[in-house]
């Protein structure tokens, strides 16, 4: 699970898969 600082949702995963699509 890649949690940065804010809750990563698959809806708003416009970040790279390194940190965005880790749910």
From TrEMBL:
Stretch list, region Disordered: 1-23
Protein name, UniProt field: PAX5-AUTS2 fusion protein
Source organism: Homo sapiens
């Amino acid at each position: 699970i890649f949690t940065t600082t804010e809750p990563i949702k698959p809806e708003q995963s416009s970040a790279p898969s390194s940190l965005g699509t880790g749910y």
